[in-house]
Specification:
The protein has 2 domains: about 140 residues, NAD(P)-binding Rossmann-like Domain (Rossmann fold), CATH 3.40.50; about 110 residues, Dihydrodipicolinate Reductase, domain 2 (2-Layer Sandwich), CATH 3.30.360.10. The strands form 3 sheets. It has a 6-stranded parallel beta sheet with strand order 3-2-1-4-5-6, sandwiched between helices. Strands 8-9-7-10-11 form a 5-stranded mixed beta sheet. Strands 12-13 form a two-stranded antiparallel sheet. The chain is an alpha/beta fold. Nicotinamide-adenine-dinucleotide binds next to helix 1, helix 5, helix 10 and strand 13.
């Protein structure tokens, strides 16, 4: 039985909580909700019909609670800051952890700290495929890859708030036609578009690393979905995958597919004896 806690009660956290509450994920109980915005956790609690959960907005209160002690799986669906602040501690406290804000793990030191604590604490760290596809294939061919390129195309509104625009003094409403606004390494893309390119991070971790994975960001006012194209080449051949993701309800930066991926990952965590895919 998985006893789940959710950190971050926005677009992803809400739908995962509802899926657990609705028994769409079997053998799983929801124990706690944590959000630095207490209203977010409270409003989500109001939508649950079967689960009895406790809400927290202070991490010390959370980790001293019975609900935390009872839980064995935590879903992070909050922010890169939350990963930096809480991930290591959660693993040290013996919790299995699913991280959605994978962009935080572009920091090699943080990733190796987390990996080092897995064996020590006998815990599991899972990075869901999220808003893309093909991570299984990228992992399989990682030793024979010559190049990996991610082309992310979004409506400028879905890129709003990215540090890139302020840094380069670009006004979003000045983009009136399809424009390539950025090209660089995964490491640099994540600094410039932290809320938008978690996919660059997971792709780099699975494949060629942060410095050798290339990212192109295209702003297109005519599209209303989030498009990710992955082009990888090597002696295995060529992989070319394009996803046209509908946006999540409540957060246009997040793809609906990322929510479904989070739900499926929680589901797989309670069925460790059967796995489909590499
Ligand atoms: N891996 C992927 O493919 C993928 C896809 C989409 C989104 N994401 C990432 O997943 C995360 C959640 O996405 P979302 O669309 O649900 O976001 P959201 O903005 O809808 O919700 C995030 C919630 O987390 C809370 N929060 C923020 N920082 C926190 C902290 N330090 N501690 C506790 N709570 C905190 C916010 O108050 C908010 O309620 C984001 O970091 C996003 O970039 C990853």
């Amino acid at each position: 039985m998985k006893r789940v806690g959710i950190i971050g009660c926005g677009a992803i956290g809400t739908q995962v909580a509802l899926a657990i509450d609705d028994a769409k994920i079997s053998d799983t109980i929801l124990e706690f909700l944590f959000d630095t915005n207490p209203d977010a956790a409270k409003s989500l609690t109001g939508k649950l019909t079967k689960s009895t959960v406790r809400c927290f907005s202070d991490f010390s209160d959370l980790i001293s609670s019975t609900q935390f002690k009872t839980s064995n799986l935590v879903l992070e669906s909050a922010s890169q800051a939350a990963v930096r602040l809480f991930a290591k501690r959660l693993l040290e406290l013996g919790k299995d952890l699913i991280v959605m804000s994978v962009g935080a793990l572009a920091d090699d030191q943080l990733l190796s700290d987390l990996l080092a604590s897995l064996d020590k604490n006998d815990t599991n760290l899972v990075l869901p495929t999220g808003a893309i596809a093909g991570i299984d294939a990228i992992r399989s061919v990682k030793e024979v890859l010559d190049s990996v390129l991610l082309i992310t195309t979004k409506n400028p509104k879905a890129l709003e708030g990215a540090p890139f625009f302020e840094k380069n003094r670009i006004r979003l409403n000045s983009i009136t036609q399809k424009t390539t606004i950025y090209q660089g390494t995964a490491a640099d893309a994540i600094l410039n578009f932290p809320s938008n390119v978690n996919v660059a991070s997971i792709l780099a971790i699975a494949g060629m690393g942060m410095e050798r994975t290339r990212v192109r960001i295209v702003a297109d006012p005519a599209i209303h979905y989030n498009q990710h194209q992955i082009i990888a080449e090597g002696i295995f051949g060529k992989l070319d995958i394009k996803l046209m993701n509908n946006q999540a309800e409540g957060n246009p930066k997040t793809s609906f597919l990322a929510i479904l991926s989070a739900i499926e990952t929680v589901r797989s965590s309670s069925r460790k004896n059967f796995r489909i895919g590499t």
